[in-house]
């Protein structure tokens, strides 16, 4: 008994909980229904057992087959001795094993961390350290990168980690993901302990962040599933929906807006693509009669260009194209709708919670020029000035939000949470928005020190901290620069300590980019451009004036 109590305590450790009156309200309103994500998928698998759930290359899984694989994996994990609350880093590309690993781990109450394929040693070891993860599941290779080497480095350096599972070719010392012992019935092998409830943290999403290291976002079963079911309703998914997954599966957009989980909820079919290019995806769309795709604006632009250059207009074949993750230019939105006959839906969301959609029935001008409206009537939204005073409708200000699927704090970082949330629990999104007369949100910019590189978020401070460690860097400042394809790219301004034998600036640039890469930061965080300066411009407060640096770049 005592042991159980302490386990419950352990499950809440480092988590900022929803205050009791909000818990009551979200339950009373039927948002939180007390179902775990594992129970949720079992229900889907029973209801749609013979439907095709997943297509991954040549492999097809019915819902029943997928559940069978999940159960087998859960048995394996349980036999390995993993327990409720143990963290597991899952870093997989768009392959079926992602879902087996994710639902399998959840089945025994483990807590997955949704690492992206682009993450490298710096991020992965940080996630392991933060959560004391015991297991790391990765692919052998993807996009030319060998994850086994990364995994072994982590195994050497991270104390808590004691097992690697590799999808694909494993080294002799590793366990291959798909080699499991015999697969007797799940119920007899492992039972989810009763102390695990839907109110507990199910898994961790990752924040794009604006300070130092990426923060972990604890999502509970209850809050996440509410956003999933509500999103599936808004997006009108059904058993006939065929969704192509192009963006990384583990991203919040891909998982829940309405994403794979929304799709499973309605019994549709998910087709996985590892190649986001127009040529690869257009072939999938034709072959499988895809009805739904979600893209970031940069990909939507590159697909539109392919159509412009003479490829078949696949936009007209789709029932819906969702675009989100970064600001979609009005001109591209208009082109998609008016020229390519596309049914467009804009999605403005964040892994911390709040998601907004333009609705199918919205006026076309709203769909072109706004980022939609909130999922829930209980998503509380405020637009405030620098002093947190609420602004009249229509004025541009900081977006704050609180609601039934928005977190109240990042995992285990009380200091950071004091700035990222208001005292009464509103999340400071760092986005500058205005709300129009129709009640739709328009994203006008951001106040957080972050670069949105084609939907991939870079916390500038994280990269600056790495650059500043170089012995010849006096100080650095990472700023965004406009890019026609990605929307934004990064440029690092470097105040350089001259040495006698400095190579040319071109070579220095190469060396510095390599330095960041070797440090182990995700590839997309490596500065796209580097400028060497003798001194930095400063604000009146003595901080580096990034606005001036950005203006220099544009000039
Ligand atoms: C999604 O989630 P994250 O956590 O990678 O990034 C969230 C941030 C937002 O705070 C905002 O700055 C930006 O990404 N963002 C957009 C946007 N959608 C996201 N900025 C302008 N227009 C949009 N449509 O990116 C995400 C999560 C769930 C659904 C969709 C996107």
Automatic annotation (TrEMBL):
Functional pathway: Lipid metabolism; fatty acid beta-oxidation; Siderophore biosynthesis
Superkingdom, taxonomy of origin: Bacteria
UniProt entry tagged with the keyword Chaperone: no
Any Gene Ontology CC annotation: membrane
Membrane-topology descriptor: Peripheral membrane protein
Pfam families: AMP-binding (PF00501), AMP-binding_C (PF13193)
Keyword tags: Ligase, Membrane
MF term (GO), any: long-chain fatty acid-CoA ligase activity
The AMP-binding enzyme C-terminal domain, residue ranges: 462-543
PROSITE patterns recorded: AMP_BINDING
Enzyme Commission number, as recorded: 6.2.1.3
AMP-dependent synthetase/ligase domain sequence ranges: 43-411
Keyword Ligase: yes
Chief localisation class: membrane
InterPro entries listed in its UniProt record: AMP-bd_C, AMP-bd_C_sf, AMP-binding_CS, AMP-dep_synth/lig_dom, ATP-dep_AMP-bd_enzyme
Compartmental location: Membrane
Protein name: Long-chain-fatty-acid--CoA ligase
Gene: entE
């Amino acid at each position: 008994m005592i042991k159980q109590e302490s386990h419950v305590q352990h499950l809440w450790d480092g988590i900022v909980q929803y205050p009791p009156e909000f818990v009551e309200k979200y339950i009373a309103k039927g948002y939180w229904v007390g179902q775990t994500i594992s129970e949720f998928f079992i229900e889907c698998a029973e209801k749609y057992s013979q439907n095709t759930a997943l297509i991954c290359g040549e492999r097809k899984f019915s819902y029943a087959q997928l559940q069978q694989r999940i159960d087998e994996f859960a048995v394996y994990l349980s036999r390995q001795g993993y327990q409720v609350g143990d963290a597991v880093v899952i870093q997989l590309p768009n392959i079926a094993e992602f879902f087996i690993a994710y639902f399998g781990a959840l089945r025994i109450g483990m807590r997955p961390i949704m690492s992206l394929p682009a993450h490298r040693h710096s991020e992965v070891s940080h996630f392991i350290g933060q959560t004391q993860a015991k297991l790391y599941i990765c692919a052998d290779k993807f996009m030319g990168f060998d994850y086994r080497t990364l995994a072994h480095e982590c195994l050497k350096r991270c104390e808590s980690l004691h097992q690697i599972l590799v999808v694909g070719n494993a080294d002799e010392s590793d366990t291959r993901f798909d080699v499991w012992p015999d697969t007797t019935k799940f119920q007899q092998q492992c039972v989810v302990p009763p102390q695990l409830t839907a109110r507990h943290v199910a898994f961790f999403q990752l924040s794009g962040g604006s300070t130092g290291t990426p923060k972990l976002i604890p999502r509970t079963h209850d809050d996440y599933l509410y956003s999933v079911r509500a999103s599936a309703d808004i997006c009108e998914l059904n058993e006939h929906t065929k969704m192509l997954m192009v963006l990384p599966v583990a991203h919040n957009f891909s998982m829940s807006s309405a994403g794979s989980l929304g799709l499973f909820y309605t019994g549709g079919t998910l087709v996985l693509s590892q190649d986001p290019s127009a040529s690869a995806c257009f072939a999938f769309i034709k072959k499988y009669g895809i009805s739904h795709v979600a893209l970031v604006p940069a990909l939507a632009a590159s697909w539109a260009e392919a159509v412009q250059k003479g490829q078949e207009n696949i936009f007209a074949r789709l029932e819906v194209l969702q675009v989100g993750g970064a600001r979609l230019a009005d001109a591209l939105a208009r082109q998609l709708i008016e020229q390519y006959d596309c049914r467009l839906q804009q999605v403005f969301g964040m892994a911390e919670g709040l998601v907004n959609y333009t609705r199918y029935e919205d006026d076309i001008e709203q769909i072109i020029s706004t980022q939609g409206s909130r999922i829930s009537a209980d998503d509380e939204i405020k637009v405030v000035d620098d002093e947190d005073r609420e602004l009249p409708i229509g004025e541009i200000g900081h977006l704050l939000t609180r609601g039934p699927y928005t977190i109240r704090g990042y995992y285990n970082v009380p200091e950071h949470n004091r700035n990222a949330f208001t005292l009464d629990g509103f999340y400071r999104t760092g986005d500058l928005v205005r709300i129009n007369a129709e009640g739709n949100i328009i994203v006008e910019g951001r106040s957080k020190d972050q670069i949105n590189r084609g939907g991939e978020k870079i916390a500038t401070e994280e990269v600056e901290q790495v650059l500043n460690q170089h012995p010849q860097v006096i100080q650095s400042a990472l700023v965004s620069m406009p890019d026609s394809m990605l929307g934004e790219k990064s440029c690092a301004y470097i105040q350089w300590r001259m040495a006698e034998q400095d190579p040319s600036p071109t070579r220095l640039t190469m060396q510095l980019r390599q330095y960041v890469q070797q440090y182990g930061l995700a590839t997309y965080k490596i500065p796209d451009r580097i400028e060497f300066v003798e001194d930095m411009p400063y604000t009146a407060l003595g901080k580096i004036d990034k606005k001036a640096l950005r203006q220099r770049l544009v000039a």
